[in-house]
C-alpha cells in the first residue's frame, strides 16, 4: 500500500497550485493588455492627428470650408487651401486604378487559370517578391525612365506630371493586386469550374462567368489593398509629381497630392502651418476610410 | 480575344517588373563593392552606405524587440483566451484599421507624439517606436493564422494530462505555431526595411553613423530617396536599391524556407 502524503507535502502542493493559479490569472490579464495596446495606439493616432489638425479651425478662426475648397496654399501669408491637392490625389489614385486594376486582375486570372504550371510557378513567387520592394525604388525608376520618356515623347517642358504619378502608382499596385487576387481565384473550389465546363461553357466563359464572380470578395480586397497603397504613397510620388501648387487640368500638369504636401513641408513647418499639415492628414485619413467603406459596400452587394 | 488579352496582361506585368528590377541592377551594379557597402559615408563622390545599413538594422531590431512579444501575446489573447464579443470585435477593428493607415499618417503621429510630446527628438528610437505600431497588426495577423493551424487535439491532449492553460500554451501551442510566427516576423522585417515616409518624418535625415539610438539618422530607403531628390544621383540611388532588393529577397526566401522546413520537422 502506498504511503499517504504527509501533511507537509499536502501544504506544498497547495502552495504550488496557488502560485499556478495566480500566474494563470496574471498571464490572462497580460495578454488582454497586449491586445488592448492596438486599440490604444489607434486611439492615440486618431486623437493626436485630429487634435493637432482641428486646432486652427477651432481656436484660431480658420474656416474649414476655405481649407477644403481654397485654391491657394501660401503658408507665409496664412493662406491654406488644399483643393488642388485633393483633386490631384483623387485623379492620381483613380488614374492608377483604371490602368492597374484590369492589368493586375487579368494577370492574376492568367496565373491562376490559364498559365501552364511551369510558367505560373516561375512568375507567382517573382511577383510576390516585387510586392515587397520598397516603394521608393519605383519612384527612382519613375524619375529615371518614365519622366524623361514623357518629356521627350509628349514634348513637355517638364516630365514630372500627373501622368507620371499615375503610371508609377499603377506599376506599384500591380504586384499587390496580382498576389491577392490570384490567391482568391485559386481558392474557388474546383467543382465550380467542373460544373460549368460540364454544362458546355467554354474555359474563358467559365472563368469570367463563374470563377471570377465566386472570387469577388477576394478580388475586392485586392483592389482595396492596391488602392490603399496608391493613395497613401508618398516618397515615390514626390519624385515624379513635380509638386506644383496648381489645380490640375490635364494629365501633363505638375501636381502635388496630399501626401507629398505633408512630407515636403513637415521638415520646416511650425505653428499654424504645421497644424494645417495635420489637417491635410485628416483629409487623407477620411478619404481612405471613405474609399474602404464604399468598396466594402460594393463588394458585399455583389456577393449577394 | 479575351484569352489573348489575358496573355498580354500577364506579359505586360512581368515585362514591367523585370524592366524595373533590371534597370536598378544595371544602373547601380558598378558602384557595388566592399568600400561602398562597408565604408563610412562621405558627401563627395558616392560615399559609403554603412551608416545607413547600421541605422536600418537598428530600426529592425528595436521595433521587432517591442512589436514581437506584444503582437504574439495579442494574438494568443484573441485566439486562445478571448470569448467572442464586443471587446474582441473592437480589438480586431483596431488592428484592421491600423493596417489601412498610410505610412505618412504614422509619420505625422510619430512626429508629434514620440518626437515632440515624449521629447525623444528626431531619432532612431522615435522611428522604431512608430514602426512598432506599423508592424504590430502584421505580427498579430500572421500569429493568429499560425495559431489557427494548431489542431485542437493538441490542446485537448495537453490539458487532459493536467497541465494548466499557460503550460499548454508555451509547451505545446506556441512551439507548434512557431514556423508561422517566424515567417510573420520575417515579413515584418521586410515591411520595416521598405518603409520610408514614416521614418523620414521621425528619424530625420542625418547622413552619419548614429552615436546611439537617440541620434537622428537615415535608413537605406530614405538615403535612396534623398540622393535622388537632392542631387538626382540615380546611379547611387540604384546601388542602394540593389542592397534593398537583395535584403528583401533574402528575407522572403528565409521566410519560405523556415515555414517549409519547420513544418516538415513538426508533423
TrEMBL record, chain A:
<keyword id="KW-0472">Membrane</keyword>
<feature type="transmembrane region" description="Helical">
    <location>
        <begin position="162"/>
        <end position="185"/>
    </location>
</feature>
<dbReference type="InterPro" id="IPR000515">
    <property type="entry name" value="MetI-like"/>
</dbReference>
<feature type="transmembrane region" description="Helical">
    <location>
        <begin position="276"/>
        <end position="295"/>
    </location>
</feature>
<protein>
    <recommendedName>
        <fullName>Phosphate transport system permease protein</fullName>
    </recommendedName>
</protein>
<dbReference type="InterPro" id="IPR011864">
    <property type="entry name" value="Phosphate_PstC"/>
</dbReference>
<keyword id="KW-0812">Transmembrane</keyword>
<comment type="function">
    <text>Part of the binding-protein-dependent transport system for phosphate; probably responsible for the translocation of the substrate across the membrane.</text>
</comment>
<comment type="similarity">
    <text>Belongs to the binding-protein-dependent transport system permease family. CysTW subfamily.</text>
</comment>
<feature type="transmembrane region" description="Helical">
    <location>
        <begin position="82"/>
        <end position="115"/>
    </location>
</feature>
<dbReference type="InterPro" id="IPR035906">
    <property type="entry name" value="MetI-like_sf"/>
</dbReference>
<feature type="domain" description="ABC transmembrane type-1">
    <location>
        <begin position="86"/>
        <end position="295"/>
    </location>
</feature>
<feature type="transmembrane region" description="Helical">
    <location>
        <begin position="219"/>
        <end position="241"/>
    </location>
</feature>
<keyword id="KW-0592">Phosphate transport</keyword>
<feature type="transmembrane region" description="Helical">
    <location>
        <begin position="30"/>
        <end position="51"/>
    </location>
</feature>
<keyword id="KW-1003">Cell membrane</keyword>
<dbReference type="InterPro" id="IPR051124">
    <property type="entry name" value="Phosphate_Transport_Permease"/>
</dbReference>
<dbReference type="Pfam" id="PF00528">
    <property type="entry name" value="BPD_transp_1"/>
</dbReference>
<keyword id="KW-0813">Transport</keyword>
<feature type="transmembrane region" description="Helical">
    <location>
        <begin position="127"/>
        <end position="150"/>
    </location>
</feature>
<keyword id="KW-1133">Transmembrane helix</keyword>
